[in-house]
Structure formats: C-alpha cells, structure tokens
Amino acid sequence: MYLTRDEERILDGEQGPSKKKAMELLVALGDIYKAERLISIASAQVSGASFKTIGEAGIKWLEGMSMDARATVPAMVNPLGLDMKRWRSMGISPEFHSRQERIIAAYEAMGLLPVYSCTPYLTAHKPRSGQHIAWAESSATVFANSVIGARTNREGGPSALAAAIIGKTAEYGLHLDENRVPRVQIKLEHVPEELTPIAGYLTGKIAGNRIPMVTGFRMTKDQHKSFGAAVAATGAVSMYAFEAKGGADKHGDQSYEETVEIGVSDLNRCADELKGGEEFDLVAIGCPHCSTDELREMAGRLKGKKPRGNADVWFCTSREAYAACPEAVSVLRGFGQVLCDTCMVVAPIEELYRSTATNSGKAMMYLPSLGRQKASFRTTDELLEAISR
Ligand code: F3S
Hints:
Blueprint: H1 5-11, H2 17-32, E1 38-40, E2 44-46, H3 51-65, E3 75-77, H4 87-90, H5 94-109, E4 134-135, H6 138-148, H7 157-166, E5 168-170, E6 184-188, H8 196-207, E7 212-215, H9 221-234, E8 241-242, E9 258-262, H10 264-273, E10 282-290, H11 292-302, E11 312-317, H12 319-324, H13 326-332, E12 337-340, E13 355-358, H14 361-370, E14 374-377, H15 380-386
Parallel strand pairs: 2-3, 2-4, 6-7, 6-9, 7-8, 10-11, 10-13, 11-12, 13-14
Antiparallel strand pairs: 1-5
C-alpha cells in the first residue's frame, strides 16, 4: 500500500509508540484487503467499550494506547456495560463498575467523545452522504452506508480506534463504488410495521455476504434502524440498497444473482419461531437505542396506564435522546428503567436475568449467546401490553 512521507514517519514511530501501533494496524488491514492507499475520514465510532466484552486484556490494551495516543477526528464510542448514573439500580456490582470506569477513563484520555451509543447518526454526529468514516457498531455502519450514503466498512474495535487516532482508514471494501453493488433482490411486500425487525432478520439470513436490494417496502427512519440492525446481525453484510428517494447509492438497471420474495406468511412464521416462552424476567426495548420519536410514542401509549407483571423493564436509549424528551422519560420510568450508555446485550445481563423478551431482531441473535438468555421475540405492542394495564 502506498504511504505518504508523513504516514511513513508515523509508521517509523516518529510520533510515538501508540500512533505507530495504530498505523501498523491500518497498514496490515490495507495489505490484507489490497488497499492502494489510506483515505481521510470524517469520524470514527469505536466498539469494545463494555468490560463484559473486552475483559482485563482489553482494558490493558486501551490503557497502554491512552498513554500517548489522541483521536484526531470526532470519535464516538459504543455502549458500555452499564448506565453511568443508574448502574446501582441496574444491579451492577461495584467490581464491574470500577473496571468499566477504567475503560471510560482510557477512552476519554484519548479524546473520544463521551457518546456511548449505537445510534450516533440520530444526533449531531450524523455523517453526510459520500463521506468516508470508520465506524465499528454493525447496526450503525449499516445505517450509515444504506440510509445516509456515507461509506464505512464494519470496523473492529481496534481498527476503528486506530482510524480515530490516525484520522484515516485503508481504502477497500465499502469505500469503493464497485463493492457497493447489490447482488440479491429481496422482495418485501405488505410488511406490517411491527414485523420490520423480522423482515431484517430474514433478509440478513438470505443475503449472507451479498448486498441486498430491498424492494416493495418503504420504511421510516426508525424502521430502517431496526431493519438494518437485524440485517447486519443475521447476515455478514453492512449495507443494503432500497428503492426510495434520498436512499443509498444509485444502482441503475442490473441483474441479480437471485431474487427472493418474503411474504407476510414467512414473516409470521419466523416471528412464531422466535416467540419463545411465555415467562420472562426482563422486557428489553431499545436495540438499537430508542430514538426520541420511539420514546415519545411509547410514552403516549402508556400514559394513564398502570404497570403490570413482575418482569423488570429496560428502555435503552442514548443520553442525548434521554435529555431531549424528559416528559416521555418520566412516563416510561413509571413502568421500568430508562437506561443510557448501555444495552441488554453488552450489559452483564446473564448475572441478573435468565429470560428476556425483546422487540429487536438483532437482540434475538445475541441474547442467547452473549447474554445467556432464553430470548423471546414480541412486537412493541405486545411488550407494552405485557407491562401495562
Ligand atoms: Fe445497540 Fe446494543 Fe443493540 S449496541 S444495536 S442496543 S446490541
């Protein structure tokens, strides 16, 4: 891969050992994927922020990097293992909290923004169409590529941090036009809104590592959020194309390797298969993090009702969305906890609960493995009915 003189100097260690390490990582990736050069990025989003997912080894690596490395572009962080303010009421142990604090301190020492969310694109940190970025969270990369038209590969935590430090990434994969072409058509017609995550769940399974072109299904921004998260969880793909004004890249006439129709009966069958048991000790909503619209809509439906059932309830959102709608948050808090900075997958949920009901296609993929949960899919309506009367 071609390096400029300045990039070579960083690689030679002239700007310190952490920058050298970051550059080595980018160059290694560039060589593996046959990139020709590094390109500047507008922002980075770094995963690997929960003590549960990175452990002691991860803390040591971050602390080592934080000795002399600093982010050179705006960089956000994925959710932590706890809500920084309400970790005690979540049931998080002081030991977990103290380790989590070290991770936060390392990221903040490196100048990363204290934005611990998987939905930075809903806030001031939204990239622009055509911008190159280096984001790690799979649900955020798929939204950025597909809905915004920005360009990012699904980075790993270390490579996203390296990109944040250098301000560049290797030019390969979804940064290049030729790799942003859909190869499979998914016809989705008459999808009931509440089964959007299931539509994404099935689309990802069919697409595998091919970019799908989704036809016949117009989605709102929030539907794209839950659809894309599920696509990226069940498939190995960080982008889909769709027919809509202002959508992803233009694709023109083209033939697909395969066309697959997903009908309402397929969606209902899949939702039934994911239904799981009738009993759960946690209801978890907000994967990806709830938007302000979603918080307000749920609060509107719950206002005037009383809480019901024995299950704990988590509404997971970003700290920015939480601050933007205090009235909705106050209604939702009558039914459970409104948590920021964290989520049901990266929090140590396995130490707190055994069975979880969720409206998220992505969480249905990860709760059984990462959270050791018996997971049950329910629509948002069903969850709100289960927790209110
Ligand atoms: Fe976000 Fe956690 Fe889901 S990071 S996409 S809420 S698994």
